[in-house]
Amino acid sequence: MSVSFVQHRIQAEARARKLAAERRDSAEVHIADIYKYFPFKLFGLNRDALQDLAEIEFQAELELCRVNPEMIQQYLDMRRSGFRVGFISDTYWNSDQLAELLRVCSPGLTWDFLYASCDHHSSKSETLFATYLAEQGVDAASSFHIGDNEKADIKSARRHGIRPRYYPQASAALASKLQRETSMFELLCPAQPSRLDHGARTLRRAVTAQSAQQSSGFHLGVTVLGPVMAAFDAFIDARRTVLAEQGARVAVGFLGRDGFLPHRVWQDAHDGSGAYLEINRRVSLVGSADTLEPLIELLSRVVKIDAATFVDIVKVQSPAVMAFFAQYPDGIASGRDLADALPSLMDTSEITDMAAGVRARLLAHLRATIPDFDHCTDLILVDLGYSASVQKSLRRIFDREGIRIRLHGAYLLTLDDAFDDIADDDTAQGLISDRIVTPHVKRMLIRNVALLEQLCCSGEGSARDYRDGAVLREGDQRPATQLALGAEIQAGALSYTSRARELAPRYALRPYDDAATTARWTAAILGRLLLLPDDDELVLLGGFMHDVNLGTQALAPLLDANFANNCVIARGIGTACTAPAPPMWLAGSFAALSPSYGYLYALFGANRLPPNVFGEARCGTLQVGLFGGDGKASLEAVDVYHSGLGELRLRIPLSRRMAITTIALPLAKLVREGMLHGVVVQSGETTAKAAEASNVAAIREGRLVYAGIERNGRHFRATNDDGMLLIPVDAFEDDIAIYTVALASLSHDRILAVEDCSIDGAPAATLSWRASATNSH
């Protein structure tokens, strides 16, 4: 109801201004003129409510408006200097209403003149400045005007000879981010109105406007990461306050490495309190182990691992495990393979002895880091998320060592279905929980959260062990340039949180009092960054690498546009959205293709990408030629599909036993003119496994042979009816390879999905596409 009311109010204003412009060449109107075009009956009202609605809106304006401290200070300075000072505003509030609004914002405020555009039926862009000059009898050159609209305030003032000063409310780049955040809010939290955020956006505008322009990284920290961290800090503080009010002796610990930036924010806001605990999932799981199961669980999530890293984790060099790694190329195996084999490679006693030593060293680290650790009753563990694995492991460690401290997880993002096995006396809660966004959305955010982890991470390697309470770390393999950029972004975030704490009271803002609203808008801000990055952010962050931490020292790319493109060619947009890591930042990889692909990915994660619209539909068959190295050739019929984006896609499955060396695709019989998106190949043990495989490789453009076809980049045009695309087939080790060709037609409008149709050289009139009179063939 509120959303409909707002939209009808906006439409009524547009209509009122349009009619006013037609009648008197000015679009300036009063608030009552606007409500004349409001649909009263729709909301159970009659037209007698017109003045009531106008008054209610004015009361809302009085409640929501804030004075800009910098502006009011300059205003008062000018009055003290003897200048005549007043206000000129483009507004649908009349002069009396504008005067009341000003005095409510700043009690005792006085002025020498006040002009409201609706009273004069003219805006600043029209004749309002001329009216002011004439009525006040002042020389334009001696007048000085401050405004936030470049056209209405600055250019118009200058046109009348008045000296202007531009005071922007938000840069174009920030305004674009805010607009995308609103779209993201409405997508991720569809049941909630996106109009109000309890002043959080007002505070962001104020801080950004008053922040000195520095590097692009610093700016990203101020405008995006800082607001997320400020909300998270308020969430942590609220958890601590509740426990303290219950009489608990509370310590707050931030889990390294992702908790590094939240820890810095907390220290800055809370007098240096809070401990930075360098405890990761690997160390805590091993320390809590009394069977092989925790280690198996840990390894099953690792993409790749080598023998040296495994030994570093378990502190045991098992001959059987070494022999296992020796079977793999370069001694690097998948974590899943190792997890499956581990019960036959190691004895439980090897793990339990090692776990006891890790526990003792880890507890020494806790006692050295947390003041008066043994007298705490409650420990808040702060981390980005997600399933409280460290918290659960610490609980098992504490229980084995007889430590009765209760544990409370405070997470930015949570997989809430993983919390049912939290100990009864412990708690775990996320700022962005499944009560804020759906589990589908949450998994999409976490699939792309590696970017946030890198932005919040410390510049040092992960903990691998402890000695006398001190941390022994791995080497950090990330490039120095990435670490430097991360430090700039974190500096911007810290600048925002510090400045926001200072400015919020001056603007009478308490943006984090409503926990649910804070959480929803934090999800929108974070979701916008992770899922809808703009081009500046892609350029800035596109080179980031992710150190997987649980595996080899190799780095995984955050962004890989070519991978995303190949997946779309091979599997279509819907299936490509499920691609596993790497790349770690799949949304960024799609956004690097185009902003629309990024938004389609966001729609998929929000369960708004219906497969019967964006999926594939069969629209015919095409005979392709298969040529072997022995000179033999055959014709095979392959299905032709169209996608929800209007593309055509053919998949040509080959068996290794067929020994095919070349595929001859009669392109002219399918499309006379079009854009070839690419040719890719997948392989697997079976056709089904090959089709699902993410090992998509593109056939280089230079290896494709065009016969009877003119080509310019991706654009092609057949010069005759026999135009062919020849695709080379390389030897493959798996039993099945699938070659996929994706293209867009420029020679007809669209092929319709009609069963039992073929594309085999028949006249165009018999084909299943709808062809226009000007481009049919």
Write up this protein:
The protein has 777 residues and is of the alpha+beta class. 45% of the residues lie in helices and 19% in strands. The chain contains 30 helices and 28 strands. Strands 16, 17, 18, 19, 20, 21, 22, 23, 24, 25 and 26 form an 11-stranded antiparallel β-sheet that branches. The protein has a 5-stranded parallel β-sheet with strand order 6-5-9-10-11, with helices on both faces. Strand 3, helix 8 and strand 4 form a beta-alpha-beta unit. The longest helix has 30 residues. It is flat. The C terminus is likely disordered.
Task: Summarize, please.
It is built from 30 helices and 28 strands. It has 777 residues and is an alpha+beta fold. Helix 11 crosses helix 12.
Key terms:
777 residues, alpha+beta, eleven-stranded antiparallel beta sheet, five-stranded parallel beta sheet, 30 helices, 45% helix, 19% strand, flat, disordered C terminus
Q: What percent of residues adopt helix (DSSP H or I)? A: 40-55%
Overall outline: flat
What is the radius of gyration computed over CA atoms, rounded to a whole number of angstroms? 32 Å
Structural class: alpha+beta
How many angstroms separate the termini? 52 Å
The count of helical stretches stands at 30
State which percent range the strand residues make up: 15-25%
> What's the β-strand tally?
28
Low-confidence blocks of residues? 758-777
The average pLDDT value, as a whole number, equals 91
Largest sheet: 11 strands, antiparallel
